[in-house]
Amino acid sequence: MLHGFGSNETDLFSFTNVLPGNLMIISIRAPYKLEYGGYAWYDIQIDSKGLKHSNNFQAEDSLYQINNFIDNITTQYKIDTQNINLMGFSQGAILSYALSFWHPEKFKNIIALSGYINRNIMPVDFSFEKYKDLNYFISHGTYDDIIPVEKAREILPYLDERNIKYTYNEYSMGHEVNKACMNDMLKWINQNL
Prior knowledge:
Structural class: alpha/beta
Radius of gyration: 16 Å
Low-confidence stretches: none
CATH superfamily: Alpha/Beta hydrolase fold, catalytic domain
CATH topology: Rossmann fold
Order of helices and strands: HEEEEHEHEEHHEH
Distance between the termini: 14 Å
Strand content: 15-25%
CATH architecture: 3-Layer(aba) Sandwich
Shape: globular
Number of strands: 8
Number of domains: 1
């Protein structure tokens, strides 16, 4: 589980009481400390025009750290390396997309909540065949004022071009996970994990 900007590892871990009991759930804290006890996977700057700019160098460093963490933890614990799944919210979803494309052999299912694809941290594709086993659950709020829903929709042609399996749902919500989204996500998890 990869939390969003300004949060920490306990945020998504709150989902554990509704997830299937046979899962080993690991929630990771982002490396960059923010004020008031929050953390980020990378910094976001807002320019004078109100446009957001991600620190892609920090994002790439976080991708490297997460990948190393996963490698280390799979050697320390009895983890089925053929059944590793990612769940990310916001920044965590953005990094989940990138991780799954950099290392498609490592991940089975990806749950991307309220995120988008940052093409600046994605690999350049040489063979779409390597992505054929990926499977995504994607959700976004139509009233999201942090990441507009139009940004989330940009992933759809990207996945379609590569013949990647996905479920995409929009909900009447902001930058959050509401009850309808949670219910659909749990149904998808029970069918796919």
